[in-house]
UniProtKB/TrEMBL annotation, chain A:
Annotated membrane topology: Multi-pass membrane protein
TM segment ranges: 59-79, 91-109, 142-162, 174-197, 203-223, 230-252, 258-275
Keyword Transmembrane: yes
One Pfam family in the UniProt entry: ABC-3
Organism: Tessaracoccus rhinocerotis
Lineage, uppermost ranks: Bacteria, Bacillati, Actinomycetota, Actinomycetes, Propionibacteriales
Main localization of the protein described in the UniProt heading: membrane
Domain of life (superkingdom): Bacteria
One CC-aspect GO term: ATP-binding cassette (ABC) transporter complex
Assigned protein family: Belongs to the ABC-3 integral membrane protein family.
GO biological-process terms attached to the record: response to zinc ion; transmembrane transport
Entry keywords, A to Z: Cell membrane, Membrane, Transmembrane, Transmembrane helix, Transport
Subcellular location(s) of the protein: Cell membrane
Protein name as annotated: Metal ABC transporter permease
From TrEMBL, chain B:
Subcellular location per the Swiss-Prot or TrEMBL entry: Cell membrane
Keyword annotations: Cell membrane, Membrane, Transmembrane, Transmembrane helix, Transport
Organism: Tessaracoccus rhinocerotis
Domain of life the protein comes from: Bacteria
GO CC entries: ATP-binding cassette (ABC) transporter complex
Protein's UniProt keywords contain Repeat: no
Protein name from the UniProt record: Metal ABC transporter permease
């Protein structure tokens, strides 16, 4: 497989893997939690690399995902104490975890070859560089297979739990009354988000992975009113946007993941403007008066 | 190095005073953001400051000015961060996209644009482009006398706005409906955002854009545990912020290879955890003691 094809495939598969859980994060008003999780996986990645010495090890993936889950559980705990108000809990937890990660990186604790710059934005081309060879045959970047595995995992999760996820997302109280373990489902979703973010870390970094996870889903959210259609539209925007963003960045010689993020932003802006003119009564009227 | 040697050294004294001023301003304004339950908007501000500062750098260099002037970079950051806050507010008001998603979108897209600008700058032949990487994680070791003057002036401006409009700010915080009724709705919101943007952008170069959110959220959350009064909370939050900024840079200088931003955050986080566990009258520890006392009283009466 040629390098370019491998990298394009990697970009597209990453976008798909991120977009799937992203739809539910947008619907559950947890978009900023993606930001928290994506920063909190850093100490897990550094420690995981120290223990496994293999950046593609599934153990590293799981360990880092668990450290990402710390943000979710930590901020849930802080909210439950009733002592911390509003959106502050996650803003308290994730910078602390990220700081631990940065300190470990800068002390070269595990000689993990993470440029602090790459931590934030990733490097698609670097991630595509480590090629996997099977029986002497070059079959493309190793990261591609990790990402594809995560995409399949996310797809299977959404497929298997679709009715339950839907109910727990739109009417959690009713879902609980039917005996659906909403707390467990929520934690499972967050764990998947954390796994996805970790796997996408090399590709997109801690901040631009939010663009892949949240922005296509938000564009789709403006375009549809049905969950099934929203997921389909999200996937189309994610694939189309990452493909177009990739080539745009390629021809402009711009950093790939940043190019993809900005391109997704342009798509959202276009959808936003297009859907504005269609409206007559603003739904946010009550909010505007506040 | 002990604290006196640290403060006797000119470079370190600049750094210490600079980060303390940053912590003071973000702590004070953070208290209002915290009480309005909008702390995370500071994360949007700090990420949008990157394209702002880099854009200002490019414009300044193309006009033949010195691109490293902090005041110039802050002006760019101020404009673009303000635009970002307004954009996320507009998206949330004018469409069915909720505010958390709007913030996430604006944050990541503006940051992406900043990374594109950073590539343009690092590939181009621009004079004085060294150190633009500092915006990501912060570099407090290069605060000059002019930088310090700029930081202190902007911090004073942010705190000044807060003091002048104290009554409007506190009314808007505790009774938003009444405040809107009096005609202080969106305009006061705008003013509060401007003050917060001022407080956040001065920290981006020294503390780093990723971690500025902690300087806004953490002192306020810690201060809230110790008091029930607004003036006390704002003052305490500002003090905790200043202390965390100063002490954090001191520790970071002593550790050597570690950038100050993460150390400042961990110092503040420690203060927060102690406050959450031990503050009298409101904390987790206080509740445990209270519960034990009630249990004992119950056992004695039974």
């Amino acid at each position: 497989m040629s390098f370019l094809v491998g990298v394009v495939l990697l970009a597209v598969v990453t976008a798909v893997a991120c977009a799937l859980p992203g739809t539910f994060m947008v619907l559950r008003r947890s978009s900023m939690l993606v930001d928290g999780i994506s920063h909190a996986v850093l100490p897990g990645i550094v420690l995981g690399y120290f223990l496994t010495r293999n950046p593609d090890s599934p153990w590293l993936l799981l360990g880092a995902a668990l450290s990402g889950l710390l943000v979710v559980l930590g901020s849930e705990y802080l909210t439950r104490t009733g002592l911390i108000a509003g959106d502050a809990p996650q803003g308290l937890v994730f910078p602390a975890l990220f700081s631990v990660g940065v300190i470990l990186v800068s002390l070269e604790f595990s000689d993990v070859h993470l440029d602090t710059h790459t931590v934030l934005v990733g490097d698609l081309n670097l991630a595509g560089f480590r090629q996997l060879t099977v029986g002497g045959l070059d079959v493309g970047p190793a990261a591609l297979y990790v990402m594809a595995g995560v995409a399949v995992l996310n797809g299977a999760f959404v497929w298997l739990f679709y009715p339950r996820l839907k109910l727990a997302t739109f009417d959690p109280a009713f879902a609980r009354s039917l005996g659906i373990p909403t707390g467990l489902l929520n934690t499972a979703l967050m764990l998947l988000v954390a796994v996805t973010v970790t796997a996408a870390f090399n590709v997109a970094g801690a901040i631009l992975v939010i663009a892949l996870m949240v922005v296509p889903a938000a564009s789709a959210f403006l375009l549809t009113k049905r969950l099934s259609r929203m997921i389909a539209v999200t996937l189309v925007i994610a694939v189309g946007g990452s493909f177009a963003g990739f080539w745009l960045a390629y021809f402009l010689d711009a950093p790939t993941s940043a190019g993809m993020a900005v391109f997704q932003g342009i798509v959202f802006a276009a959808v936003f403007v297009a859907t504005q003119s269609r409206r007559t009564v603003p739904v946010g009227g009550a909010a505007a008066a506040r | 190095m002990n604290l006196f040697e640290f403060l006797g050294n000119h470079t370190y004294r600049m750094v210490f005073l600079g980060t303390a001023a940053i912590g003071l301003a973000s702590g004070a304004l953070g208290a209002f953001a915290y009480l309005r339950k909008r702390s995370l908007v500071s994360d949007v501000i700090s990420h949008a400051a990157l394209p702002g500062a880099l854009g200002a750098f490019l414009v300044a260099v193309l006009l033949g000015l010195d691109g490293r002037r902090l005041a110039l970079l802050l002006l760019g950051a101020l404009l673009v961060s303000g635009l970002a806050v307004a954009a996320s507010g507009h998206i949330a008001r004018a469409s069915k996209v909720r505010v958390d998603t709007a913030m996430a979108i604006v944050l990541t897209v503006f940051f992406g644009a900043g990374m594109l600008l950073m590539r343009v700058i690092s590939d181009g032949p621009y004079p004085g482009k060294g150190g633009i990487q500092d915006y990501l994680f912060g570099n407090a070791t290069v605060i000059t006398r002019a930088d310090l003057a700029t930081i202190v002036a902007v911090a004073a401006l942010a705190i000044g706005v807060m003091v002048v409009f104290w009554k409007e700010f506190s009314l808007r915080t505790f009774d938003p409906a009444h405040s809107a009724f009096l005609g202080f709705g969106r305009r006061v919101d705008g003013l509060m955002s401007v003050a917060l943007v001022l407080a956040v952008v001065i920290g981006v170069k020294a503390v780093g854009l990723v971690l500025m959110v902690a300087l806004v959220v953490t002192p306020a959350a810690a201060a809230r545990q110790w008091t029930r009064r607004l003036p006390t909370m704002v003052a305490l939050s500002a003090l905790i912020g200043a202390m965390g900024g100063g002490l954090g840079t001191y520790v970071s200088v002593n550790l050597g290879a570690v950038p100050p931003g993460p150390v400042v955050v961990l110092v503040l986080f420690t203060v927060f955890v102690v406050s959450l566990l031990l503050a009298p009258g409101r904390s987790v520890g206080h509740r445990l003691v209270q519960r034990a006392r009630v249990r004992r009283a119950l056992r004695e009466t039974a």
